[in-house]
Every structure is written in structure tokens, then in C-alpha cells.
Design a protein that fits this description.
The protein has a single domain (9-224), classed as BirA Bifunctional Protein, domain 2 (2-Layer Sandwich), CATH 3.30.930. It is built from 11 helices and 5 strands, in the order H-H-H-H-E-E-E-H-H-H-E-H-E-H-H-H. It has helices at 9-20, 24-29, 31-48, 50-56, 128-140, 142-150, 152-157, 179-182, 195-199, 203-213, 215-224, and strands at 91-96, 107-112, 117-123, 159-161, 187-193. The two termini are 23 Å apart. The mean pLDDT is 94.
Length: 229
């Protein structure tokens, strides 16, 4: 899996410049830079991660299409936002479950941003129906949940994260031993990355290692949702 490395200092230089010049005129004038320094390397990374991903699970997809695949679009949805900046100042890649099609699907995620890079895996902002099934899964298989998130390999590199309710969700025992996990609105684990890690030739190997560490969590979440893993 080690190679020449897809991402370089130029990837982050472009994103920094974009943050300082977040307008359409500047982006159009620098679109070739975006294609060569950000989008191209990201699509190459997606393509190259296809084989390691299949070894993790045959039910997740590395889709290297330029549009509609694993790479999130650079354009922001500004319809309901006070911030009218047209472009994201980060790059996001998600390897989603084959049964789900949007950002809220179970997936392995890579976030690249000059201010902070990270690996994420799990389910971010699930809808109400999905959240209910996840919580039921925790109650029905508490041992499975504890085993998934308490292993030494998991805890060495990953930390459970995301938003949580202030109070226990309705219908659940406030004294349940997993009540803090039942409060979760996101079921994700993250690992921070430095730019130095991302641009090294061995980064894909390291990314795959983090994903393997999170494999028990992903398997648990898929079971709770009746999805194959």
C-alpha cells in the first residue's frame, strides 16, 4: 500500500489560499490548481484504496467518479446558510456502505484541512429511525458494543466523538449502564492527523490501519441496522 503518496504540501497550500480567497473569480482562475493538487490526488487515493477497503469489508465502496462518488463536492450548499462563501475549505472523502447513498451512511471518512485533518468512521447525524435502531442495538447487545469500542487496538488510535443529548432519550432507563452512549446523536470514532502524516508515502497504509482498528465498531453498527458487513 505504500507508494509515492497522493497528497502533497501543494494540496494544503491550495486549501489555505482558497480560505483566503473564497470567491468564484479566484476559484475559476485557479481551477487547474484545484484539479491537479486536490481533486486529482483525492480521486487517485479513492481508486488505490479500493483493494484495502475490500479486505475490510466487501460491502463498502470506493467510488472514484469525479462527481457523485466517494469525493465530496467542493461547492457549499449556501441556500439556507448565512455564510455565502461558495466553496468548502477542506476536502472530504467517504467510503460508504453499498446500501446507503448519502453522507449519513455508515462509512470510513477522511477529512483534509490545513487547520486540522482527521479520520472518522461510523454514522454521522443519522435520521430518527436509524438512531432508534442504533440505540435498540446497544440495549440488545451491550456486550457487543463494549467489545467493539473497548479493545486495545481501538482505544490506541480512535476516540468516540460527536454530539450527544443533554438528557437521556425518552423511553430509556436513566440508570442504564450505557446511558452515556444511548445519549449519542452521532455514532462515530475519530483520530486526528497531522499534515506531515497525510503527505508521507505510507499514508494509505496508516489510513487502512485506523480503519481496521474501527472495524469492530463498523460491524456492530451494520448489525444494528440489519446491513451486511
Amino acid at each position: 500500500m505504500a507508494g509515492t503518496g497522493q497528497f502533497t504540501k501543494k494540496t494544503f497550500a491550495f486549501l489555505r489560499d482558497l480560505a483566503e480567497n473564497n470567491n468564484r473569480d479566484w476559484f475559476q482562475a485557479n481551477k487547474v490548481r484545484y484539479e491537479e493538487e486536490v481533486k486529482g490526488p483525492a480521486l487517485e487515493f479513492i481508486q488505490d484504496f479500493s483493494s484495502p477497503l475490500q479486505r475490510l469489508s466487501p460491502h463498502f465502496r470506493a467510488d472514484p467518479r469525479a462527481s457523485g462518488g466517494s469525493l465530496f463536492r467542493i461547492h457549499r450548499d449556501i441556500r439556507f446558510s448565512k455564510d455565502k462563501s461558495p466553496y468548502k475549505t477542506h476536502t472530504g472523502i467517504q467510503f460508504r456502505h453499498e446500501r446507503r447513498k448519502d453522507a449519513h451512511a455508515p462509512g470510513f471518512y477522511l477529512h483534509l484541512e490545513p487547520k486540522g485533518c482527521f479520520i472518522g468512521l461510523g454514522i454521522w447525524h443519522p435520521d430518527g429511525k436509524t438512531l432508534k435502531k442504533l440505540r435498540e442495538g446497544l440495549v440488545e447487545d451491550s456486550k457487543g458494543w463494549n467489545k467493539a469500542v473497548s479493545g486495545s487496538v481501538f482505544k490506541k488510535g480512535l476516540v468516540l466523538s460527536g454530539e450527544s443529548l443533554v438528557r437521556p432519550p425518552r423511553g430509556y432507563d436513566p440508570e442504564h449502564p450505557l446511558i452515556e452512549d444511548l445519549k449519542r446523536k452521532d455514532f462515530i470514532a475519530v483520530a486526528p492527523l497531522s499534515m506531515k502524516q497525510v503527505i508521507q508515502p505510507e499514508f494509505m497504509r496508516d489510513f487502512a490501519s485506523y480503519c481496521r482498528a474501527g472495524k469492530p465498531l463498523m460491524a456492530f453498527l451494520c448489525r444494528a441496522l440489519d446491513l451486511p458487513f
